[in-house]
């Protein structure tokens, strides 16, 4: 297990037919060799599990990756837990390049992102 930096970019949708490299997330997470999140390692390293949301024409948002029950959320500085952005079934997905992950964003819309880099 190791902490990895993950970059997600907006996948294609009706507003962005080619996706967008200018909209997404970069986060640090404890991943197993097969790309699954490790909740036990997260507990030991949660202060290092940060997230940055980047969105064209908006200021970056910074926060942390949180594990809540079986779910995973992005939590941002200065916001309440009710404003967290849940990651859809992240406990079951492998975080590996070319895979897709979904995030319910602040506006309540579930958007799909492509994993473009894991380092």
Can you walk me through this structure?
With 119 residues, this protein is mostly beta strands. It has one domain: Porin, CATH 2.40.160. It contains one helix and eight strands. The chain has one helix at 39-45; strands at residues 2-10, 20-31, 50-55, 58-68, 71-76, 85-87, 100-104, 110-118.
Gross morphology = globular
Q: Give the uncertain stretches in residue-range form.
A: none
Average pLDDT score: 91
What is the element string, with H for helices and E for strands? EEHEEEEEE
**Order of neighbouring strands in the sheet with most strands:** 6-5-4-3-2-1-8-7
The helix-and-strand class reads: mainly beta
- State the domain count: 1
CATH topology, anyone? Answer: Porin
- In percent, how much strand structure appears in the residues? over 45%
CATH architecture: Beta Barrel
Radius of gyration: 13 Å
Q: How far is it from the N-terminal to the C-terminal residue, by CA?
A: 13 Å
| Portion of residues within helices | under 10%
* Counted beta strands: 8
Give the biggest beta sheet. Answer: 8 strands, antiparallel
Counted by DSSP, the helix tally is 1
CATH class: Mainly Beta
């Amino acid at each position: 297990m190791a902490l990895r930096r993950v970059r997600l970019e907006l996948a294609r949708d009706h507003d962005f037919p080619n996706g967008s490299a200018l909209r997404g997330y970069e986060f640090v997470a404890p991943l197993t060799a097969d790309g699954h999140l490790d909740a036990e390692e997260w507990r030991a390293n949660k202060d290092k599990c940060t997230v940055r949301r980047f969105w064209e024409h908006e200021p970056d948002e910074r926060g942390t990756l949180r594990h809540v029950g079986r779910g995973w959320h992005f939590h941002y500085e200065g916001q309440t837990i009710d404003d967290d952005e849940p990651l859809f079934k992240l406990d079951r997905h492998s975080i590996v390049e070319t895979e897709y992950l979904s995030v319910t964003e602040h506006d309540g819309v579930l958007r799909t992102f492509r994993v473009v880099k894991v380092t």
